[in-house]
Amino acid sequence: MEILKVIKFPWPLANIVLQHQERMNGTGYPKGLYGDEIMLEAGILVVADMVCTMLTDRPDRPACSIEQCIDELEINKGSLYEKRVVDVCMRLLLEKSYQLKTRGHAASCQHKPLSI
User: Fold this and answer.
1) Is 60 domain-assigned?
2) Segments forming the whole domain that contains residue 64
3) Domain-located, residue 86
4) Is residue 99 within 8 Å of residue 114, measured between CB atoms?
């Protein structure tokens, strides 16, 4: 985190990364931020991290299915995850042929362009 503070970016990247464990209902960390206190960019990172984590094999478990990932998003939309971000993510998963390509432990997200 300290490294990001000293590098000049056109966005508040250090704060975005710092907030990526925060949850909309205030149950996250490190500050227990609630709702609009969490930057939208951090909310995007939260959902992207969750989706990539669920859809990739891990040393302790196999990848989850797209259906399980969608269930997680739906169940926690608005409580853990930012509603607008979940809506866009759901469009990627359901309408835009989202795929997660993996090589070893590295993953890259592949999808058709999304028009909002």
Assistant:
1) yes
2) 11-109
3) yes
4) no
Assess contact for 45 and 17: CB atoms under 8 A: yes
pLDDT (tens digit per residue) in 4-54: 778 888 888 889 999 999 999 999 999 999 999 999 999 999 999 999 999
Strand partners, 81: 77
Q: Return d(Cα 7, Cα 2) in angstroms, integer.
A: 9
pLDDT confidence of residue 11: 85
* This prediction's pTM: 0.79
CATH at 63: 1.10.3210.10
Domain count along the chain: 1
What angle in degrees, to the nearest 10, is found between the helix axes of 66-76 and 83-95? Answer: 160
CB atoms inside a 10 Å sphere around CB 15: 15
- DSSP result, 20-48: GG--TTS--SSS---GGGS-HHHHHHHHH
Does residue 102 sit within a domain?
yes
73-108 pLDDT tens trace: 999 999 999 999 999 999 988 887 666 665 554 444
